[in-house]
Amino acid sequence: MADSISDLNQEWDVVIVGSGFAGALIAHALGKARKNVLVLEAGPRVPTNINDDMERFYTASAKVPESPYTPTLFDEGGRLSDPTKVNDGRPTVLSLNPKGGFGDWTDTTQSYLHQIGPFPFSSTYERAAGGTAHWLGTSLRLVPNDFKMKSKYGQFVDWPVDYEKLEPFYCSAEAELGVSADVADQEFLGIKFSKPYPMPKIPPSTTDKAVSDAVDKMTDDDVKFLEKDDSIKKIAVRSLPAARNSQPYRNRRACAGNTNCIPICPIQAKYDPTITLNDALDTGFVKMSDRTVASDIVVGENGNISQINFIKYRSDRGPEQEKGSVRGKLYVIAANAIETARLLLMSRNGDGVANSSDMVGRHLMDHPYLVAWGMSENRALFPYRGPLITSGIGDLCDGAFRRERAAFRVDIGNEGWNFVAKGDPNTTTLDFINGMNQTRVNAPGEALLGKALMERLNKQFTHQFRCGFLVEQSPDPGNRVTLSEFKDGLGLRRPKISYDLSDYTRKGFAAAYKMKNLLFAKMGVTEFTSINEGDPSMFVQDIDGRKVQLNFMGAGHLMGTYRMGSSKSDSVVDEMQCSWDHRNLYLVGSGTFPTGSTPNPTLTIAALSLRTADHIINNVLR
Amino acid sequence: MNDFPQQRDAVGPIENADEPSGELTRRTVLAGVAATTMAATVAGFATPASARDIDPNSPRDMVLFVLLSAALTGIAEPKLAPGFRAKDKNLKPADLAIFLAQLKPSDLPNLNPGSDPVNIKRDYFSFVRAQPGQPLPFEALLNIAEGSVGAPDREKAILDKVKVANDDVRYLARSIALMWYLGAWYEPSDLRLANTTPNSTPNFKVISSKAYTQGWALRVAQAHPMGFSQMQFGYWNVEPNLRSDFTGS
Fold it and tell me: What is the pLDDT of residues A515-533, one digit of tens each?
């Protein structure tokens, strides 16, 4: 650990900004290759153990993804912390609420992101050593056609890499993270494996089995509207490959089904980047400076990056401690799709770096998430057991329909209505004890106690169901990160976001909506999905002649803002994630994804990072 | 060991519990308490003029708290308070359930409230007692529990009395049920406001990390509090144990 400024004052081989998935994996690979690496991390260092995080989580009244981690979400008065006073600020789902009240999404005294709409960008992240550790663990590969949207479907652009080139690095990433799955389950839509997974699949849940039984009842006629790919004869519910131990692996134990992956696994059976970060620091060649915010990427006379300036602070709401700069042969920015774009744009006095394409910040993508929930009328599903998600439907992620509309992937929730009903079990329990009806299942407003209460709550919880649809988002130049006039605690301009859903994406929502109706009908689930008054993510979509109100949540996937490509005029980085404009600058993470497709970005981030590290070690720094 | 060493009554403190006193025997005290409770039930106000100092260290008060909590939550006493048992008999769980279902007032001194290492009942008792404005309604609830021992359906007897008690007592009963279910404190006055004012949602505060992990809502669901599983890998692949294994019925 580099504790003093003078420790940082040497010519490093590589300086890495950010210690999440991309930063930690690259640091580790370089450290193993005996390269001197300095990691600058905006947030606090890896804690000795997660006890403080668990305490924060257990006592949080809003158990949102950010709740275990710092900076704390509320100030003393119970208001959302003012982002102008926080040094390592980040967005929270609590500031995605309707206008005019608590967590107003447009109120920059509550929201870290300056959101100008028309919709709120609804995904959040952490700024701490290890990055966004609140992830679920899902580790899916892209399907081969995901890399070729332009040549196969006439949409958007092709990636400058393809599945074959990335496949060996997918294998390395799966070994590093410790991914549990069975190859036989996962060879669909052209996916092939050169190596087996390191651990066998996570067993399906009782809820998964109910969904599977329902999907088995779907006839060809029922699913005609989906226009699924010819290679898919019957839609399958498949195990979700996950960086979650199904056996003891690398000194971490197997999953015990704490049903808490997001926001934090109490036993670290779920992989998070602090594991690789600690391995990197243990090589002896990697140092990290925490609470160190990169503030300016400085370009030298030859057009290469000459140094990165930073600001150090001690406490997240305290004054800045000191300023400094670091030098390296190479620089890697791994600060996530929003923070990396922000840093690039704010450099050179706001003129920006690496941006001759004018694409830095543009094509911001998420997987807008359509969520639905209901009550299983007859069959008990026994949710709230096992990992948050164990299975899903991926067979609908590719097909000729992508000429016309976005694809979607189906998530099967194992956590009942926890994600959707304002934090169940609290809401349903309060409804039945206090005669309220926030969940809409207690219309008569019964107030129960004793065995009647216990039996009713048992019946409610054991029959709850929720599912989600990750819809592919198109890369739109108008969806972008720019710089706000509003600043953070260090006086740095915060990200300003404009965000919308294209017609292509909305048509994907329409198909997902119809799939949801079909699934609920086959399962015997009565729907209870509702949209809150004033929900800023609400939109109306024409579906088979009817006007339907829909809304979306963020999936936690930030992509696209410094995309990779084959030429400098229409991309920011090349296929090795090296900036076209500055040949000693690498921009990594899902900000380089030219299209969003449907799988979670994390495994692809990891594979691309390992490929970049491999290139740096073998070709650049030799 | 004295069964109820810190016996107090509704009228005034006893000088010395060992001193025989014609008026202040346990029987008369309990009768007095029952009478107060009955009067309150009829009159609609339950809280006596002065409160005795209910005490989590008093086995009597703790036993009453467990009996009350079981009635409010519908979860069996030995589940809420591991080790809750008859002192002089070594009863198997099924026999203990029968014994507790047929509990008589003369059994009360013979009950051990249980001394499990987690002892969340003690945290909850102390917490409620420390909330401003709650000692009196809390005492009234304990008295309701005591006065219902011996009824053929003790839960029904307790809940019927709670239903017609004053608002302070009724809403505290709800707060106590919520506390056991969620490990969180919903202020009784907030619960009342939510019933009387449209669009009013009660806030809550998690009592402690320990309380969160002892919450019953998801055990009643035949699962476990999120973030606190004591199960083994793969358990989610098969249906859970019967509800009665979790809640006692």
Answer: 999 999 999 999 999 999 9
According to DSSP, the β-strands at A391-393 and A369-376 are unpaired
User: Which residue is listed with tokens 């990891």?
Assistant: A606
**Nearest chain A CA: its distance from B222 CA (Å):** 7
- CB distance from A452 to chain B under 8 Å? yes
* Whole-structure pTM value: 0.92
Strand order across the beta sheet in which A114-118 lies:
A114-118, A493-499, A480-487
Among A40, A129, A125, residue whose Cα is nearest residue A91: A125
Distances (CA, A) of A421 to A308, A430, A531, B108: 45, 12, 11, 42
Work out the number of other CB atoms within 10 angstroms of the CB of residue A5. Answer: 17
Q: Which domains does chain A have, with CATH numbers?
A: 5-49+272-364+558-620 (3.50.50.60), 144-158+168-268+366-477+500-550 (no CATH)
Distance CA A610, CA A29 (A): 7
Residues 27-86 of B with CB under 8 A from A: 71-75
Judged by CB atoms closer than 8 Å, whether chains meet at B236 and A438 is answered as no
Which stretches does DSSP call E strand in B125-233? 184-185, 205-206
Among A382, A384, A451, the residue with its CB nearest the CB of B249 is A451
- Residue in chain B lying closest to A206 (CA): B237
What ipTM did this prediction achieve? 0.95
- Per-residue pLDDT of B154-184, as tens digits, reads 999 999 999 999 999 999 999 999 999 999 9
Residues of B in contact with A458 (CB under 8 A): 220-222, 243, 247
Interface-testing mutation among A53, A253, A426, with chain B (most B C-beta atoms within 10 A): A426
Partner-chain residue, chosen from B202, B217, B236, that has the shortest CB–CB distance to A257: B236
Report domain extents, chain B.
54-206
